[in-house]
Amino acid sequence: MSKAVLKNDLAWEHLFRKYKIISVVKKYGFFRISASLIKEFREPRLMTKFDHKSNLPEIFRNNNLSILPVTRGDYIIAPMELYQDIDEYINSEIKYFSIPEHLQSLNQNITSESNAINSAYISGILSDFLEEEDLLPTVSGRMGSGCFSFEVNSSENRGMFNVEVENSQIEIDGGYEGLESFAIIEAKNSLSHDFLIRQLYYPCHLWSEKVKKPIRPVFMIYANGLFYLYEYKFSNINYYNSIELVKTGLYSLEERAVTQEEIVSLLSLDQSLKEPELPFPQANSFERIINLCELLFDRKLTRDEITSKYDFNSRQTNYYTDAGRYLGLIAKKRSGDVYFELTPVGNRILKLKFKERQLKFAELILKHKVFADSLKLYFKKAEEPSKLEIVSIMKACKLYKIDSENTFERRASTVLSWIDWVINLQR
Fold first, then answer.
1. Which fold has domain 260-426?
2. 180 contacts 214 by C-beta, under 8 angstroms
3. Is 414 exposed, middle or buried (0-12, 13-18, 19+ CB in 10 A)?
4. Which residues pair with 232 in a beta bridge?
5. What average pLDDT does this structure show over 136-157?
6. What is the mean pLDDT of the chain?
7. CA 130 to CA 416: how far, in whole Å?
8. End-to-end CA distance of the chain
């Protein structure tokens, strides 16, 4: 467990013990806690921001508890279902849009959430997805939630729990109004398995009382040149868990077509690269490795910051940073705390146009004989190799410090996943 995560966990354990929070929750159904009480042990902003279920402190997870802000300085802790699962792989055709050529100030190397929203709006992606021709940006930033109450599901199958909110602070990444509807956008630049419903629900509840047009909550992810758009609706605005997925969309600002010939040509490159003395990758999502590099493009990050920013636990952070190091994309440094930054190779690749970038990532993978031989077998069979076949290739490549059958089989999953990623570049 990383130091910052450990500090958070320890601080919450002290708070739970001092104020007998679990006993109070069992008796009354919830515990109300102020920012001033939290501050006895640690800064509230570090103790209460959990965008993903995996970010929750251990004592919360072990007791099926979550936390919600209810005023500008108060929170409730209760067994509440606050997160919505999300499928980060949208299986639909990619639509292509472009930013007008005369706009030089909007950098197409998108690294921030605000830049992603601006790009999606200016290029026409949002208008297309929302089917609103005359779409205009109207609201954004921090504001009060207003006063309202709502029902939320219990995480312990005890029906529903009532929550009363009084002018809690909310933040809207982007509000866009058209002739027929008003869309509220929550944007992220990191792939995830879930998101905090509150980030859409509180703003929707506020604006449902201010405008007569339909409110359209949209969750947007920008990662590796793709805009993933998910439109939801709340079938009952007074019921937090009434969220329903309406539609999805997948967009890009650059043509992405990679041919099989281009992939095959990478197999003719020199594969005599010596295996690095690093753990063999155990990170199945290559999209997330790329996304992690994107997060490191602007600045270096500590292990704790990566864990907090991403939908990762500490172990996954280690797996994915190690995978980036294995490929020569990420460097691990120490200056007081351990931190990670892009290598010169990683920086150069992220500055490339999308297609060139993908082929460079594929090249880094296929410079390792184990992946090249696995892909060759894939093409020879015209189907995905079995795990046993991958393990046989791995053993022949004399990988660094893999000496048990279980470890070979687990790492074989990563080999198959990365090879699938290379194959799917033809999509």
1. Arc Repressor Mutant, subunit A (1.10.10)
2. yes
3. buried
4. 245
5. 93
6. 91
7. 37
8. 38
3-state secondary structure of 274: coil
**Token couple for 348:** 């150069």
DSSP 389-424: HHHHHHHHTT-TT--SHHHHHHHHHHHHHHHHHHHG
- Other CB atoms within a 10 A radius of the CB of residue 375 amount to 23
Q: Give the start-to-end residue ranges of the domains of the chain.
A: 3-78, 95-252, 260-426
Name residues whose C-beta falls within 8 Å of residue 307's C-beta, 6 or more positions apart in sequence.
2, 4, 5, 55, 313, 314, 317
Pair of tokens at residue 294: 């994107």
pLDDT tens for 69-124 read: 999 999 999 999 999 999 867 777 889 999 888 887 776 667 788 889 999 999 99
Q: What is the mean predicted confidence (pLDDT) over 256-274?
A: 86
Nearest 5°: the CA angle 206, 215, 137 is 90
Phi and psi at 375, nearest 5°, equal: -70, -40
What does the pLDDT look like over 234-255, one tens digit per residue? 999 999 999 999 999 999 998 8
- Compute the distance between CA of residue 314 and CA of residue 306 in angstroms, rounded to an integer: 9
